[in-house]
Amino acid sequence: MRIVHVEDFIHPDAGYQVNLLARLQVRQGHEVIVVTSELDRVPAHLVQFFGKDRLRERDERFERRTGVRIIRVPLWGFYSGRAIYRPGLKRVVDGLRPDVAMVHGEDTLMGIGFILRAARLDYPIVLDCHMVEMASRNRLRGAFRWLYRHLVTPSILRHQIPLIRVVDVDFVEKCLGIPLSKTVLLGFGTDTDAFKPDRAGRAAFRQAHGFAEDDFLVLYAGKLDVEKGGAFLAEALFRRLPSRTGRRIRFLLVGNTIGPYGAAVEATLEHSENAIRRFPTQAYLDLLPFYQGADLALFPRQCSMSFFEAQACGLPVLFENNEVNLQRSRFGNAMLFEPGDVADFREQLARAEAMAAGDFAAMGAAARRLIVENYDYVPIAQKFTDILEESARRFQGSREGRR
C-alpha cells in the first residue's frame, strides 16, 4: 500500500510521531511518503534546536535510514501554529496517487482543506488530533470553533472520515462537536525493538568516550531552555555532587542552548565543579548509544517524549513531582523531586548513586517493562495502519459500487 502522510512540520532529526510512525510502516512493508512544509518560513522556535542547514542532505539521510521519502512544499508562512501553504499542496499529494492519505491535524488549515474536498478526492483520508484545550490559546478560537462545528464537522461525519486521537482528552467533542464515539484513541510510545538495553553497546559507548565501566553516568538529553529547566539543571550541577559509594559521578548533557538564556546556562555549566561532557543536539536515532551507555536519565523540568526512549533502554529517571510524572513513576521505575527545589533534586540524585546495585537494576527492569507493556509503539503503529487499510478498502469498495 502507498501511504502518504501530510504534516505541517517535520524535521528529519526529530522523534515526532510522524517520523516514528512512517518508519515503522515501511518496516511493515508499505511505501511511505511524507509531504510537508519547507523550513525557510517555519517559526524559529520549531527549528532552532535541530537547525535547518543542509536540510536536503538530512532529508536524504533520513530516507536512507528509514525508507521514508520527504517531499517539501513551499509556504506563505505560519499563523497561530498552522502552516499556510502556497498553491500546489493538493496537486503534489494527488500526483503521488496514494492508496490512502493520513492528514495530521484535523484543525489545521491544511487538514480543513482536505476534509472539505474529501468527496472529490481520488483517495480516502484519515485524520488525527494532537490538540488539548489548554494549548488552544488563539483569541479567535471561539469563532474558529463555531465555524468548524458548522462547516467542517458535518463533512467529517457525513463522509465517515476516521479520526484518531493521540491524547486521551475530549477536545474534539467539547470544542469541535465530533462525538468521541466516532473517534479512535491510539497513544504514543517508542520503538522497543530499536530502543532497548544492550551491554555491548554500553561498553562500546563508554570506551569510545573515556568513561569507566563503574562510573555513575548521568544523562540529560534535550533542550536546555526555560521550559525544560536549563537554568535549574545548571544551578543544581554547579557545586560538586559527592559520591556516597566511591564511584566517579559523571554527567552527559546532550543538547544546544539558544539566546541570552542559553548563554547564562552555558556560563554556569562552564564553571561547574562536576565532571560534565557536552554533546550537541543529536538526531533521534543517534541518541540510542547515549541511552544505552548511561545509568540514569534526568528531566529537570516537566518531562518530554524522550522519557519513552530512556525507559525503553532500561534507564531509571529522575524527574519533578507533577501529575503526569507521578502517574508515570508508580511502577518503581523512577524517582521524583519537588519542582524547583535544587536541594531536593541533588538529594534524590545522590540517593540514586548510592542505591544498592540490585535495587537500581530492579528499577531499570521496571522501566523497560513499563514501556514494553504500555507504550510499545510497534503494535500501536500497526493499529494506525489497520485503520488506513480499512479506509482504503472501504473507499475502493464504494468506488466499485458506483460503477
Give an account of the 3D structure:
The chain is built from 16 helices and 15 strands. The chain has 2 domains: 2-189 and 376-402, Glycogen Phosphorylase B (Rossmann fold, 3-Layer(aba) Sandwich); 199-374, Rossmann fold (3-Layer(aba) Sandwich), CATH 3.40.50. Helix 1 (17-27) crosses helix 16 (377-402) and helix 9 packs parallel to helix 10. It is of the alpha/beta class and 403 residues long. The model has no long low-confidence stretch (mean pLDDT 92). A 7-stranded parallel sheet has the order 3-2-1-6-7-8-9, with helices on both faces.
Q: What is the third-level CATH name, the topology of the largest domain? A: Rossmann fold
Biggest sheet character? 7 strands, parallel
What class do helices, strands and sheet pairing give? alpha/beta
Number of strands: 15
Give the distance, in angstroms, between the N- and C-terminal Cα atoms.
23 Å
Stretches with pLDDT under 50, minimum 5 residues: none
Shape-level CATH architecture of the largest domain: 3-Layer(aba) Sandwich
What percent of residues adopt helix (DSSP H or I)? Answer: 40-55%
Please give the count of helices: 16
> What strand line-up does the widest sheet have?
3-2-1-6-7-8-9
Mean pLDDT: 92
Residues in β-strands, percent? 15-25%
Assign the CATH class of the largest domain.
Alpha Beta
CATH superfamily of the largest domain: Glycogen Phosphorylase B
